[in-house]
Amino acid sequence: MKRIINRKLLFRSVSAIAIALLLTGIAGCNGLSRNPLNLSETVKPSGAVFVSKQAPVMVSMLVNPNRFEALDGELKLSKLKTSLLANTGLEYKKDVQPWLGSEITLAVTTDDIDRDAINGKQPGYLMSVKTKDAAKSREFIELLFSKRVLAGTSLVVEQYKGVKLISDTPQTASIKKPLAATVVGDNFVLFANDAKILREAVNNVQAPGLSLTSLDKYQQLIKQLGSKTQAVTFLNLPAVAKWQGLKLSSPLSYDAQLISLTKKSPGLLAETSLLANSPLPAAELSEKIAALSYIPATCGFAIAGKHLSNLDNSNLALLWQQTATAISGGSEEGIASQITQPLTNLQKRWGINLKEDIFSWVKGEYAIALLPNTDKTPDWVFVAENSTTPADISHLDEIAARNGLTVSQINLNEQKISAWTQLTTTGNKASNFNIQAKVLGAHTPKDNYEIFTNSIETMDLVLNNKNNLFNDNRSFQKSIAAIPQPNQGYVFIDWTKSQNLIESQLPILKFIEIVGKPFFDRLQSFTISSYDNSDLLKAGIMFLFNE
Question: In whole angstroms, what is the distance from residue 304 CA to residue 476 CA?
């Protein structure tokens, strides 16, 4: 029975596919970043002409695959070697590398090859490989299938519309999966898991209107690619839903998604563009978030933007939710709940509902940051532009007082601070009682902002800091220089300082770190931002790596 799901669950399914493909591409291109790249002549995947416009997903690597040999961790096109060369005695460097060109495109072309649900679903897979030597490519195909025949397959050779197709069917346990292949013209070698997929690929390239390149939404998204794009993933969202066996309970908000990877010195920019089915609401974009000037440069995690009251419904939140749900397996929490977890842990002590009593009145700029601490719980800073009335601030003091906290006014370097303290006594005799005050929070106005912290020490650091995130953190400066402006704000994560915190919120990251060890070993920081463009939701993640 087909599952009936909502759009969020489809987004998770798509996200899982996209994030997996993205991490694979990033890991590969991370290794490439140390060496000159052999970029394809065009950033548009030329192998798309063989892919059906009904295909759910297509992935293209637009760099010479041989460059992956430089990557630690033995990526080295392992899937290609394992699936194609198993039990054949052929060698990658000797038999494949000499003719391998500057692009590999892989696609799921259909959710079921024979379109017969009775015998189960068998997706169709197609791989298009550019060749720089057609003669050597043909020699390889002939040699590959002759070795497979010796290992236990039955061979079929046919001519289809002027193209020679070779396919086989396993007859013994030593060869587990069927294979079909052909060389098209002088530029492409095609591999598939069924000869029918190859025949459809030939049809797609010969008949206008059948291939992915004729699809309007593909053309709209592919225009977003820059001149130095190295990897591309295209997702046809309705087709993805069908492929995954999902029955939607409501129409999709987005029709297609494009994910790209671009080398941007000194890191890598991963961008996503989502094509909306209807015009997107206007987003408030900013050239600069001045609230960041109050965030210490030593912070490990920061988020900044405008209209905190609308954060969970923003496009920046949508990208965060896509990433977090794909990695964690599907949290329903919004971004405000996730990123302010250290703050929400204090709500019971304060008796304050963060969303209703604070976030709801933040209509201007805001910045939230976590600072490394020797304790497991980090220090935090919350900066909000004063787009409210004094009554909103005094209301917080009233709530604190109702919950047994003492509101005290103190001077900190001639700056008046409101501190929320918890008074306790020590000693067992009236004459020996000592009163101790523990600060649970503090706030003060500064210029046009209200600043909140978890301690007086943190407040002192904020008010007297000479190095702030916006002007003095080199990782953040490098990241925002590569991210388009204006935008909706930033989520900045210093991986070296926040790894333990992020892993505690998303435990599965520890497993992903093992799989993507070369990537995470060198990861220094990443910055997320959203920058809308007409009917496209556009966002990006800038990754920086340690040298």
Answer: 12
Q: What DSSP character marks residue 20?
A: H
pTM reported for the whole predicted model? 0.79
Q: How far apart are alpha carbons 422 and 405 in whole angstroms? A: 5
**pLDDT, tens digit, 9 for 90 and up, residues 110-123:** 988 888 777 778 89
Q: pLDDT digits over 369-394, tens only? A: 988 887 767 888 999 988 666 677 78
Strand partners, 264: 267
CA distance 452 to 167: 68
Q: What token pair was written down for 284? A: 């408030």
Decide if 107 contacts 166 (C-beta within 8 A).
no
Task: Tell me the per-residue pLDDT of 414-442, one tens digit each, with 9 for 90 and over.
Answer: 899 999 888 777 766 656 667 777 888 89
CB 421 within 8 A of CB 439: yes
Classify residue 185 as left (phi > 0), alpha (psi -120 to 50) or beta: left
Q: For residue 357, what are the contacts with CB-CB under 8 A and spacing of at least 6?
A: 395, 396, 399
Looking at residue 399, its amino acid is I
Can you tell me whether residue 35 is helix, strand or coil?
Answer: coil
> What DSSP line would sit under 289-353, residue for residue?
-GGGGGSBTT-SEEEEEE-GGGGGGSHHHHHHHHHHHHHHS-----HHHHHTHHHHTTHHHHT--
Helix (H/G/I), strand (E/B), else coil: 206 = helix
pLDDT in tens, 53-99: 999 999 998 887 665 433 333 444 555 555 667 777 888 888 988 99
